[in-house]
Every structure is written in C-alpha cells, then in structure tokens.
Specification:
single chain; alpha/beta; Rossmann fold; Dihydrodipicolinate Reductase, domain 2; 9-stranded mixed β-sheet; 6-stranded parallel β-sheet; 15 strands; globular
Amino acid sequence: MTAPLRAVIVGAGHRAMIYASFAHHHPDQLRIVGVADPIPHRRQMAAQRFHIPPERQFENAETLAALPRFADFAINGTMDHQHVPTTLPLLEAGYDVLLEKPFATNQEELRQLEEAVRRTGRKLAVCHVLRYAPFYALIRKKVLEKAIGDIFNLQLVEHVSYHHYAVGFLRGKWARPSVCGSSMLLAKCCHDLDLIAWMKSGIAPVRVASFGSNFQFSPRKTPPASGTRCLTDCPIEPDCLYSARKHYLHHPNRWSFYVWDALETIPNPTLADKERSLREDNPYGRCVWKCGADVVDHQSVLIEFEDGATATLHMVGGCAKPSRSIHLIGTRGEIQGALEDGRFTWRVPDPAPGRETAEIVFDLKTHDDTTGAFGGHGGGDLRLVDDFLHILRGEPPSISSTPLEDSIAGHRMVFAADQALETGSVVELDRRTNRS
C-alpha cells in the first residue's frame, strides 16, 4: 500500500469542501493537511473537520506558498476572479493543483495560467465535473467507439431552475460580472461548452455567435407594488414566486451553504434566527428585481467547427425544473438523453423492410450510483478527485481527464460567445490558437 496523497485547501468554500470530503470516504488515498482562507471561521471549520494543526492554517494562498511545500497538491475553490491569482504562487511553489471552474475569467488570465503550467511543469486539472458523471462518460465512450460515426451536430440545453437562478445569479455571488469576474455563461455553462469541446476533441471551434438578454428580471419588469426586502416591506410577498420565505424558510436546507453563511458562527441556528437574518441584512432576503443583478436569464450560442460541424447551447434561467439535455447527431446515428433522467438512447438508421430506426436505451440509474457516494453533478464530483489522484500517482487517467490544455477550447468558446452577445457580431477564432 502506498501512503495517501496530501492536499491543502485554498478557499474553504462549498466546492472545495466537497472535493476535500474524498479524504473522509477514502482516508487511505487522501489526507487534508492544510487550509488557506481569509475568513477565520471558514479556516476553523475546515481545520476541525480535517484535524489541521494551527501552524498549517493560513489567511491566503500567498502565505501558504511562501513556506516549503508540505503537500502534494492544492484544491483551489476560491471565487472565480481569484482562481488565477491564487493558483500562480501555488504552481511556483511546486504544488499540483485541482482548480475549480471557471479556471480563468478572461483571455489574459488564461494565457497567464497556460504559461505558468507549461513553465513549471506542474499538473493542473480543471473541475469540469460533468465529464466524470457516468451519464456523460458513457456517451463519450460511445463517441470514441464511433458508435454514431462522425459528429456533425451537437445540441445541448441547460434549464436552470427558478430557485437556483435566484440564489446564485440574482441574490447571490454571481449577480454582477464586475464583482465576481464571470458572466452567467461562464459561471454556469462553462461545463456545457466544455462538454461540446470534449465531444469534438481535437477539432477546433472557428466561429461563434450568441444572442440573449435579461428578459424576466430587468428593472422594467419589477412588480409595481414590490418592496425592497421580502419579509419587511413587500405587500405582494405572499403571492410572489420568488419570496425569500418560500425559497429559504420553507426549504431551509436547500442552498443552505450560501443562504445561511452569515450564520455559520452560530451553533445550530434556529428557524427564527434564519428569519431574522432575512429581515435584516442577509442578501438573500432582497427582492430579486432590486438586487442590481447584471446577468442574462437566457442565452443561446451557435458554434462552427473547423470540420464544418455545428453546435448549439441554450441556457434558460428561471425554469420550473432543472435539466441538462444532450443530442449528438453523427453520420451513422445519434445519441439523445437527459442527465437528470440518467438515461440516453443510442439510435441508428435501420433501412430493413418495415423498419426505420433501431435503438438501445442505456439506463445508468439501474446499475450505477449517480447521486450517493460519488457526490453531486450526476456522480461526477468525487470521481473527478479520484481521477486526479490516479494522475498524480502516475497511473493512467480516465477518458474524462481534464488537463488544462484539454479545457481551453471550452473557455475560449465562452469568451467568444459573450463577445458576440455584447457586440452583435460573429466572432472568428484563430484556428491555430483558438483565440478570438
């Protein structure tokens, strides 16, 4: 048996703590030995959970990186605009890095990170966890087997639920790109564009167009009688779909890590504590139309690849039911399914008399754990960590492996789509570098 690999947490937020929880499930493979976070109670929470001594607790990545390296890799779960500034000193200090998406918020950051990885020779994997969900991994396997021939059209759709859209992109941390660094497309759909790039791996995207707007939550759509906070001055709150009472008090455990982060220092906060916070200064108690949010609620992207294939992605926020669907059409068949259903259909033409198509349904929920021991995102969260450990041990990676160079195309499509949306133009990508 080899000794477990050692990791430090940089940014002890929701995502990093999920990845670090692999150490609880598999203590023979991973140990968490340090933490860096500017928020004291977040550092303490991580330290208690993973038994980290005081001398291995730091306020920031720079302080941690200034010491001699004491772990094999870092789990970087900082906010989007902090990813590159915090990763660069870690790479220079000799740490390999498991980096939360998006790994860069603009082209310049992307170039900086790409150059640092190349120069230091360190390993960096991007947390595109959907690649590791059994649903998408099996689809990719069928694509590699040429089960549908050469793909010439990809159709992906992401429906973001009304409560997810409200908590993350109206009231939450990703409401204003000027603050968080990420557009709606980058924060929410870099996963989906990464899937498109993955399915067309090795074939460069060359042109991108995009359309979208804030249709539902622009200031002109504000209900005339609405107040500024749901529980203090809003007479229409009982009838409002986006009532903070309905979203967060009636569902106190849904999105709890975000909504109740101001109460983390209170042991076992009561429902009364939570209601009081929504009445006072909790940002999740604000009217969704009066949060100053500056993101689209729907955006469509059209991509052309160098081989002539095309792809579309439709992101729609405020939907009744969350879902991610995929439809790949190739020269010899097609694959169609939805992640939440855990099923996809492999369909091929069948010209036999009395036939039109032949199809096989792959139902992964019947034989694979997609929600339990391997975490969220269709079971991808902890499979990602497991794969990165294989890479660090010098073992073969899975087909889902996400090295930086394989993740670049998806991010550049995001940047091009947002540029196209802003300028109303078709953005050409350099065929040699995929830069717009």
